[in-house]
Amino acid sequence: MVATTQETAASPAVRARARRQRDEELLVWPDLVFVEFIAAVVFTLSMTALSILINAPLLDRANAGVTPNPSKAPWYFLNLQELLLHMHPALAGVIVPTVALIALGAIPYFDRSHDGQGEWLSTPRAKLNLILGAVIGTVGTLLLIVWDSSKHVVLWARLTGNDETDWPTKLNWLRNARALQDEINWPSEITKIPFGEKVLRTDLLGLPRIDLNLNLPALLVEQILPVTLMIGLPLLMSLVLHKRGIARTKRDHMIAQFSGFIAVYVVLTIIGTAFRGQGMELLWPQDVVPPVS
Amino acid sequence: MASTERPEGRSLGDRVYDMLFHNYVWQSIFRSGYPNTPRNQMLVVATNVFLHLHPTRIHRTHVKITHTYCLGGLSFFLFLGLTITGVLLMFYYVPSVERAYEDILALETDVRFGILMRNMHRWMAHGMVIMVLLHMMRVFYTGAYKPPREFNWVVGVVLLVLTLLLSFTGYLLPWDQLAFWAITVGTNMVGSAPILGEPNRFALIGGFVVGPAALIRFYTLHVIGLPLLAAIFMAVHFWRIRRDGGLARPL
Ligand code: HEM
């Protein structure tokens, strides 16, 4: 460690600094142990109180024949279940969480500078980046959910006094993500690309022929678009923050990105928990009724 | 020891004190004297197996509650609380499809403090997920993942995953509709992965649908497999905090 090089050449200044450091130290017993003890006591009491006041839920006995509507995962996975409504299940259920965890673990290998460690929001622009990241993450996620649930159509109808069905037919492709596939007259050459017949020629290897037709518009809606948005929007945010001189160091960018990520995670969790009713329809919490079987 | 430092003519209080803390039995348990002098206070931390997770001295800023909000410590505390209530729950619970649900019902009606045990276990489990997430945020915003603590951050991410898995495996055990369908939905997500999804799902729940095999797998993971792993990673986590020179602070 650093200390070994310092000890050999212990100048008075170095010794003075070491003494100052000592002065700023406290004994673990009693100073820290006391705080820990109080925290533990307060925590035990509040957990006991909570458990006396609120009972853990217990529904009917498990029955594979009766599917509740909606069936929801535990709350900390409802963010993924929410993603499931908007993209290919392999993306939402496996690829996105895996990539997110790897990215999370990689943070310290990306931002390697020592600057500002051990201090709350140390850079001068840290707070601003935190707020902007969180706000952009929240608003962006909400807008995308509103669009994919066609709630902008409802809003339009409310504002103009029209009926939802009055939405111009020409703009039907803007109703939600899936409409990009269904409401546009895609030529059949690209909705049915004979991948199995032309590209993956397994029959040449003496194997059975694969019946695989690629539907490009479906691929677009389920995979290309979500991936582009999930990678592109954060990048765009960093680019804009950089150009505006708001995020100047790697740490600034990390703070904006991390705050955005946490905001998205929280928004998706809340939407999935409180705003999804039967058939996973987007509703106001007061309209969400308990699952029916 | 300390008696040599004392003047003659000791008060009653001193004599009671000596009787309590300077007797043969007490000193066989606690080798250092009562922690009322700086020397003994450091010794007590250094020689006690539980307290020696700590250094003997710590920087001023780290004692301030607003530096860590005790979030990591409370995560650990929740883990301990969950272990205690969990062991008590195991007395009454049999992980079979025939008995699981009835055992939970019986726990709530026939067992003294059974419902309190179950509630505490449940709320602490939710609390731990929240606490670990908040702890991660505190570590991030204080820049405490920076060198030399990179690897401890990775250990932390592993602990986060283990915490989620512990909670998820426990969710199935009451074997009610909530448990059954939440795990069905959750494991279906695993199954949607390309190529490896289906085999993984099959391995996880021991079949094509959530049934007896899934219950016993989740139970085993929940009560021994994952807690053991979590304990090992926590040991590494705490060890690394000490090795990395205590909590992060400005250079
Ligand atoms: C079961 C879960 C966990 C437990 C029991 C735990 C426990 C602790 C404790 C007791 C500390 C001491 C300081 C404090 O209380 O804040 C600490 C520090 C730390 N934890 Fe965790 N932790 C857990 C999960 C995590 C996670 C998810 C991360 C990050 C992804 C993480 C990263 C760190 C780092 C880098 C430090 C050093 C902080 C510093 O130097 O200021 N831990 N942990």
Helix content of chain A: 55-70%
Give the distinct bound molecules: protoporphyrin IX containing FE
Class of the largest domain in chain B in CATH? Mainly Alpha
Largest sheet data of chain B: none
Which sequence of SSEs, written as H and E, runs from N to C of chain A? HHEHHHHHHHEHEHH
Mean pLDDT of chain A: 87
Helical segment tally of chain A? 12
Structure description:
The complex is a heterodimer of chains A (293) and B (251). Chain A is mainly alpha-helical and 293 residues long. Chain A has a domain at 75-111 and 129-173 and 219-283. Chain A is built from 12 helices and 3 strands; from the N terminus they run H-H-E-H-H-H-H-H-H-H-E-H-E-H-H. Chain A has a two-stranded antiparallel sheet. The longest helix of chain A has 28 residues, at 216-243. Residues 1-8 of chain A have low confidence and may be disordered. Chain B is mostly helical and 251 residues long. Chain B folds into 2 domains: 10-53, no CATH class; 60-243, Cytochrome Bc1 Complex, Chain C, CATH 1.20.810. The model of chain B has no long low-confidence stretch (mean pLDDT 90). Strand 1 of chain A pairs antiparallel with strand 1 (57-59) of chain B, so a sheet runs across the interface. The complex binds protoporphyrin IX containing FE (HEM). The site of protoporphyrin IX containing FE has 28 residues of chain B, from helix 6, helix 8, helix 9 and helix 12.
